[in-house]
Amino acid sequence: MSLENQLNTDLKTAMKAHDKLSLNVIRMMKAALTNERVKQGHDLTADDELAVVSREMKQRKESLAEFKKGHRDDLVAGVEAEIEIVKQYAPKQMDADEVAKIVADSIAKVSASGMGDFGKVMGVVMPQVKGKADGALVNQTVKAQLNK
Protein backbone atom coordinates (compact mmCIF):
# COMPACT_ATOMS: atom_id res chain seq x y z
CA MET A 1 0.00 0.00 0.00
CA SER A 2 1.40 3.37 -0.97
CA LEU A 3 1.94 6.03 1.65
CA GLU A 4 -0.84 8.14 0.19
CA ASN A 5 -3.34 5.28 0.43
CA GLN A 6 -2.23 4.57 4.00
CA LEU A 7 -2.69 8.25 4.90
CA ASN A 8 -6.18 8.29 3.35
CA THR A 9 -7.19 5.19 5.32
CA ASP A 10 -5.78 6.60 8.56
CA LEU A 11 -7.45 9.95 7.86
CA LYS A 12 -10.86 8.27 7.72
CA THR A 13 -10.12 6.36 10.91
CA ALA A 14 -9.04 9.54 12.70
CA MET A 15 -12.18 11.34 11.53
CA LYS A 16 -14.42 8.58 12.83
CA ALA A 17 -12.55 8.51 16.15
CA HIS A 18 -12.63 12.33 16.44
CA ASP A 19 -8.85 12.26 16.97
CA LYS A 20 -8.00 15.88 16.15
CA LEU A 21 -4.25 15.57 16.67
CA SER A 22 -3.88 12.61 14.31
CA LEU A 23 -6.21 14.27 11.86
CA ASN A 24 -4.11 17.45 11.77
CA VAL A 25 -0.81 15.59 11.41
CA ILE A 26 -2.13 13.34 8.64
CA ARG A 27 -3.54 16.33 6.78
CA MET A 28 -0.18 18.11 7.04
CA MET A 29 1.61 15.05 5.69
CA LYS A 30 -0.89 14.71 2.82
CA ALA A 31 -0.37 18.39 2.00
CA ALA A 32 3.41 17.95 2.05
CA LEU A 33 3.12 14.97 -0.34
CA THR A 34 0.83 16.93 -2.65
CA ASN A 35 3.19 19.92 -2.63
CA GLU A 36 6.12 17.66 -3.48
CA ARG A 37 4.16 16.00 -6.31
CA VAL A 38 3.31 19.43 -7.79
CA LYS A 39 6.89 20.62 -7.36
CA GLN A 40 8.31 17.56 -9.16
CA GLY A 41 5.59 17.49 -11.81
CA HIS A 42 5.00 13.73 -11.61
CA ASP A 43 3.82 11.02 -9.23
CA LEU A 44 6.14 10.43 -6.32
CA THR A 45 8.36 7.39 -6.07
CA ALA A 46 8.81 5.51 -2.80
CA ASP A 47 12.09 7.40 -2.26
CA ASP A 48 10.34 10.74 -2.81
CA GLU A 49 7.66 9.79 -0.27
CA LEU A 50 10.36 8.73 2.16
CA ALA A 51 12.10 12.09 1.72
CA VAL A 52 8.86 13.93 2.53
CA VAL A 53 8.26 11.84 5.67
CA SER A 54 11.87 12.39 6.75
CA ARG A 55 11.51 16.13 6.23
CA GLU A 56 8.31 16.22 8.28
CA MET A 57 10.03 14.28 11.08
CA LYS A 58 13.05 16.56 10.98
CA GLN A 59 10.89 19.68 11.19
CA ARG A 60 9.13 18.36 14.25
CA LYS A 61 12.36 17.33 15.96
CA GLU A 62 13.81 20.79 15.33
CA SER A 63 10.65 22.38 16.74
CA LEU A 64 10.85 20.13 19.78
CA ALA A 65 14.46 21.14 20.43
CA GLU A 66 13.59 24.84 20.12
CA PHE A 67 10.56 24.54 22.40
CA LYS A 68 12.64 22.72 25.03
CA LYS A 69 15.36 25.33 24.75
CA GLY A 70 12.78 28.07 25.18
CA HIS A 71 11.16 26.29 28.16
CA ARG A 72 7.83 26.07 26.31
CA ASP A 73 6.59 22.95 28.09
CA ASP A 74 3.05 23.68 26.90
CA LEU A 75 4.15 23.06 23.30
CA VAL A 76 6.62 20.22 23.94
CA ALA A 77 3.94 17.61 24.67
CA GLY A 78 2.03 18.42 21.49
CA VAL A 79 5.10 18.15 19.27
CA GLU A 80 6.14 14.89 20.96
CA ALA A 81 2.69 13.47 20.19
CA GLU A 82 3.01 14.62 16.56
CA ILE A 83 6.40 12.90 16.30
CA GLU A 84 4.85 9.62 17.46
CA ILE A 85 2.22 9.89 14.71
CA VAL A 86 4.78 10.69 12.00
CA LYS A 87 6.94 7.74 13.17
CA GLN A 88 4.16 5.40 12.05
CA TYR A 89 4.86 6.35 8.43
CA ALA A 90 8.65 6.47 8.63
CA PRO A 91 10.78 3.38 8.04
CA LYS A 92 12.32 1.67 11.05
CA GLN A 93 15.36 3.67 12.12
CA MET A 94 18.79 2.08 12.36
CA ASP A 95 20.43 1.98 15.76
CA ALA A 96 23.88 3.40 16.48
CA ASP A 97 25.61 0.02 16.08
CA GLU A 98 24.20 -0.52 12.58
CA VAL A 99 25.24 2.98 11.55
CA ALA A 100 28.73 2.46 13.03
CA LYS A 101 29.18 -0.74 11.00
CA ILE A 102 28.15 0.97 7.74
CA VAL A 103 30.46 3.90 8.53
CA ALA A 104 33.38 1.56 9.28
CA ASP A 105 32.81 -0.34 6.03
CA SER A 106 32.60 2.93 4.09
CA ILE A 107 35.81 4.26 5.64
CA ALA A 108 37.60 1.09 4.57
CA LYS A 109 36.03 1.27 1.10
CA VAL A 110 37.27 4.82 0.38
CA SER A 111 40.55 4.31 2.33
CA ALA A 112 39.82 7.35 4.48
CA SER A 113 42.68 8.38 6.76
CA GLY A 114 41.41 11.45 8.59
CA MET A 115 38.95 14.34 8.76
CA GLY A 116 40.05 15.48 5.31
CA ASP A 117 38.15 12.50 3.92
CA PHE A 118 34.93 13.37 5.77
CA GLY A 119 33.08 14.37 2.60
CA LYS A 120 34.09 11.20 0.77
CA VAL A 121 32.88 9.00 3.61
CA MET A 122 29.59 10.89 3.99
CA GLY A 123 29.05 10.60 0.23
CA VAL A 124 29.28 6.81 0.49
CA VAL A 125 27.35 6.42 3.75
CA MET A 126 24.34 8.69 3.18
CA PRO A 127 22.82 6.81 0.20
CA GLN A 128 22.96 3.60 2.26
CA VAL A 129 21.18 5.06 5.28
CA LYS A 130 18.90 7.61 3.61
CA GLY A 131 15.66 7.81 5.57
CA LYS A 132 16.72 4.96 7.84
CA ALA A 133 19.10 6.85 10.11
CA ASP A 134 19.25 10.34 11.56
CA GLY A 135 21.74 12.52 9.68
CA ALA A 136 23.11 13.96 12.93
CA LEU A 137 23.86 10.44 14.23
CA VAL A 138 25.63 9.57 10.97
CA ASN A 139 27.62 12.81 11.08
CA GLN A 140 28.74 12.20 14.69
CA THR A 141 29.63 8.57 13.96
CA VAL A 142 31.73 9.47 10.91
CA LYS A 143 33.58 12.19 12.84
CA ALA A 144 34.21 9.87 15.79
CA GLN A 145 35.59 7.09 13.60
CA LEU A 146 37.75 9.41 11.49
CA ASN A 147 39.26 10.96 14.63
CA LYS A 148 40.41 7.57 15.97
TrEMBL record:
InterPro entries per record: Asn/Gln_tRNA_amidoTrase-B-like, GatB_Yqey_C_2, YqeY/Aim41, YqeY/Aim41_N
GO molecular function, one term: carbon-nitrogen ligase activity, with glutamine as amido-N-donor
Signal sequence segment: none
Coiled coil, from the record: none
Pfam family, one: YqeY
Record SUPFAM superfamilies: GatB/YqeY motif
UniProt cross-references to PANTHER family, sorted A to Z: ALTERED INHERITANCE OF MITOCHONDRIA PROTEIN 41, MITOCHONDRIAL (PTHR28055)
Name this protein carries in UniProt: GatB YqeY domain-containing protein
Organism: Levilactobacillus senmaizukei DSM 21775 = NBRC 103853
